[in-house]
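User: Hello! My lab partner asked me to get a predicted holo structure for this protein. The small molecule is coenzyme A, SMILES included with the sequence. Please write out the structure tokens.
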Amino acid sequence: MAEPGVGRPPGVELLAVDHEWARFGEVLDLSYAELYCPFGVVRDAEWYHPAHGSEFAVALDERGRIVGTARLLPGAGDPERQVRQVVVAPAARGLGVGRLLMQALEGTARTEGAVELWLHARESAIGFYERLGYACEGDRFVSPLTGIPHRTMRKRLG
Ligand SMILES: CC(C)(COP(=O)(O)OP(=O)(O)OC[C@H]1O[C@@H](n2cnc3c(N)ncnc32)[C@H](O)[C@@H]1OP(=O)(O)O)[C@@H](O)C(=O)NCCC(=O)NCCS
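Assistant: Hello! Below are the structure tokens for the protein in complex with coenzyme A.
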């Protein structure tokens, strides 16, 4: 079941892709530009981890520009799956794109047998995940990569 809330933002198309997608480099560009570059992480550092086996939800605007992405780590058949690198381009925030990306990954995970999703949320994004039904667990910790505080969050898939 989809979350209650906004429908699809006007003009937004959602794709399910993997690292072989022809425009995958643009997905990485958005993730790096918004999630890592501002914190001084260099592009060739361990910011990305191997893409092989991960599944990506990608949002395109009406002009075909990539305006958001979220990544489901490999693990088809696993009861728990991890989400990483959820990002919406600044100009497209607040329109429901992030919710759409998370709903897409939740649907994929559920189809592949998962019953729970978990992630490491930046403190600034905790409210976003709470709106989608995720709850914090454990202590606050600082990412060794970006130096910013995070919490682990988890959601039981319905
Ligand atoms: C966090 C992020 C992905 C949210 O994407 P978005 O498209 O702006 O979010 P949505 O418009 O789908 O918002 C869904 C709901 O969450 C709320 N929300 C969004 N961002 C929020 C935030 N930072 N804090 C609290 N609530 C937030 C929205 O108001 C909306 O609430 P509603 O249920 O009343 O409609 C986006 O702001 C972003 O890319 N931030 C920078 C990168 C980042 O921090 N990513 C997360 C890494 S862990």
